[in-house]
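New to this. Please check this record:
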Amino acid sequence: MTELSRDILQDWQVRKTKAQKERFIAFLQSRLPGLRVEEGGLPRCRNLVLGDPESADVVFSAHYDTCARLPFPNFITPKNLLIYLLYQLLILVPFFALGALLVWGLLRLGVHGPSSFMLGWIAVFGLILYVFLLGPANPHTVNDNTSGVVTLCELIGSLDEEELARCAFVFFDHEESGLFGSSRFASKHKKAMKDKLLINFDCVSDGDDLLFVQSGKAKRRVDAALKEAFSSTADKRATVTGPLGAFYPSDQINFPCGVGVAALNRSPLLGLYMSRIHTARDTVCDEANFSFLVRGVRRFLQLYRP
């Protein structure tokens, strides 16, 4: 890996608060001349852009903001939507149980019926907001999404001059709070991004199965090139699919011609899955994944001519 990538992994894994992001932006700008900040939107997003998205053949992206530390992992099964939805509902059960208990307690204390329901559920939704978004920063974010940031840095440091001229790189803000940074970028560059290919790296360092989830437009345009460029090796397996083959909720869904890339583990029962993210156990960094992705991107650029 490049020196920049190692420095980020060692010293810059926490990028949650405004001050933490500002320090990281200053650091990244000191190491990547030409990196600029596109600021705007609500919440206030600071997307970091290198290159010209208007003229690039391909935009490569990753979100740089990081999440709150949760008591449970954000468990994702991109090719098993039923399990994914059931898990999300299971996470909410304790919160709703607490809400019911609060309402019961308020009623026992003599609080009027409608008021007890309103106060109880306001407290529950406030707790959900704190736990998922406003709580203490997760101290370890190797996979989510320091790995995506490192992938962009590895590409910037590895591509030759001709390859770089065909690319733009975007570090999105506010993915964790609702994909706001990529939404802002898509709106600002609406005309350019209408048909432009965007490849988004989110959680790519933990797992030997690399999943590429394409939008319908991307599948029609680059399916064959992606499969050839990112062909499986003895150590890494690549799965390239369209929107009906998997669901991966990340920034690429804001773009008509988007591809989301993630690394996953494999279970005989669940199939491809992701665990550990959003917890202090998010520490797995398989450097071979970065090498696989960089080689694949270079091969893809040879194959893809829009």
Remarks:
- Residues 14 and 139 are 6 Å apart (CA to CA).
- The longest strand covers residues 258-267.
